[in-house]
Specification:
By secondary structure, this protein is of the alpha+beta class. Helix content is 53%, strand content 11%. It contains 20 helices and ten strands. It is globular. It comes from Dictyobacter aurantiacus.
Length: 470
């Protein structure tokens, strides 16, 4: 299926998938020098691995990848490792060979070699892999190593488990504790913002502010389903994990592509609504960029994905107070995401979405010659859109609407009844919502305001407030 240009027919999903997330991060380790722009965690972790460990990593995540593809219901990585260890070693080998045979048939239109010959004849195995995946991705030495392990399934299983257990315990378990809550939150936000009628190209742009790379489009071309997974470690790149899944007890029947992408947690789903940027906002955003130091900071982050404040200070050779002032201005315009680390340390990442939004506003200005401000938008046009969902007294009568855009329109309307800077109890939020709706389910509306980032709340739900700029 061509997901790039065809509309989503329910085959594109967003998921959290902690096990897939971990495996993708592990797969990046041996690519840290070839793929610039990955997160500092990948670079630092890769530098701590021995050459032997990096070679085993290549072997597992290139030549034996299908053996690693997890089931979707795996709750966490320790559980995944346990189940992988309990699996019959010969079934594990089958997870590699059956998808290989099926892909060979699909891509060559020829009958695949029998499994027996793939196991016993190294030349047959190498020729099958080469014809299936192409010359560009073929590493004969690596595939010979893989073939040796395929001849001894128990040793293959031990090698896989030993390597994954080491990576999990020594590098990733603590890191996962640090990032999992933010990734879970991102998954929920992206799930809520996924438009069922959008193409993959449109979805990726809406989620990241970047166009779908051609190599990603090619990599998912044969997939029957695509899962979009927020990652903390891909930096400004996207990666793909294509693997076969069980169908009615048989491994290798369905190809599923998982696309991993990173976007700073200041991504605001509510900003996807088609608002027009006012002249004052555009002037402020362009003013923030009209400085050599701030442009240098942005340039640094395009190459390194995430940097500590001290690293930026050292790279620019400026005083801490000067750099802090420039960082603060870029953060206030949401060009950067600021994250507090251990102690007083802060790290920074680019927000490609807000850079793209500014560029789009400049393009609109050049094309139209004038940029109408939000204050000059005709009120009647706005009311006409909303009129379908409210009665004559302005009370909401419909929730939830079928279309994503209508949902954001309604939530924006409801948010307008709350005062900026004021804290509301849950009871006060419910009362205000019920005052302006005929719908009795205030909890659903309150949840919508929170999930779509019009309002924020305390972790225990005791207080709510409008998000600045919502």
């Amino acid at each position: 299926m061509d997901f790039t240009s065809e509309r989503n027919t329910g085959k594109i999903h967003v998921a959290w998938e902690p096990v897939s997330n971990a495996l993708n991060s592990f797969a990046l380790l041996h690519q840290s020098t070839q793929l610039p722009g990955l997160s500092p965690w990948v670079e630092q972790t890769a530098s701590q691995l021995t050459d032997e460990q990096l070679q085993i990593n290549r072997l597992l995540f290139i030549a034996l990848r299908d053996a690693l593809t997890p089931q979707r219901d795996e709750p966490n990585f320790p559980s995944y490792l346990h189940n992988l260890g309990e699996l019959n070693a010969y079934v594990l080998r089958k997870r590699i060979l059956e998808p290989l045979r099926r892909r060979f048939s699909q891509r060559t239109a020829a009958s695949p070699p029998h499994t027996k010959y793939l196991i016993t004849d190294v030349d047959t195995y190498l020729d099958t892999v080469r014809k299936t995946y192409g010359e560009d991705d073929f590493d004969a030495g690596l595939q010979r190593q893989a073939h040796q392990l395929l001849q001894d399934p128990q040793e293959m299983q031990r090698t896989i488990l030993a390597h994954l257990e080491t990576l999990w315990k020594t590098t990733f378990a603590q890191e996962w504790k640090r990032v999992q809550n933010m990734l879970r939150w991102q998954s929920e936000m992206f799930t809520n913002s996924l438009r069922q009628e959008a193409t993959l190209e449109e979805t990726i742009y809406e989620f990241t502010g970047r166009h779908l790379p051609a190599e990603i489009s090619r990599a998912v071309a044969g997939a029957e389903e695509i899962i979009l997974i927020p990652s903390w470690h891909t930096g400004r790149r996207m990666t793909v994990w294509s693997g076969a899944e069980w169908i009615e007890g048989e491994w290798g029947g369905k190809e599923v592509a998982r696309i991993f992408f990173s976007e700073p947690p200041n991504y605001d789903v509510a900003q996807q609504r088609d608002t027009i940027m006012s002249r004052p906002e555009l002037q402020a955003r362009l003013g923030a960029l009209a400085d050599e130091t701030r442009l240098s900071i942005i340039e640094l982050l395009t190459h390194r994905s995430e940097l500590h404040a001290q690293e930026i200070i050292a790279a620019l050779d400026l005083s801490q107070s000067s750099v802090s002032r420039h960082l603060k201005q870029l953060v206030s315009m949401k060009y950067l995401y600021e994250r507090r680390g251990e102690g007083a340390n802060k790290t920074y990442r680019l927000s490609s979405y807000y850079l793209a939004r500014t560029a789009q506003a400049v393009q609109q200005l050049s094309e139209e010659g004038d940029m109408p401000s939000a204050d000059r938008l005709p009120e009647r046009a706005y009311s006409q859109e909303l009129k379908r969902f409210v009665d004559r007294s302005g009370r909401l009568t419909t929730w939830p609407p079928a279309k994503q855009g209508d949902k954001l329109l309604i939530l924006e309307y409801l948010a307008s009844f709350f005062e900026k800077g004021r804290m509301y109890s849950e009871k006060e939020v419910n009362a205000l919502l019920l005052e302006h709706t005929t719908i009795k389910d205030a909890a659903a509306l309150r949840r919508g305001l929170y999930e779509y980032r019009f309002m924020n709340r305390q972790p225990n739900g005791s207080q709510y407030w409008l998000i600045e700029g919502a």
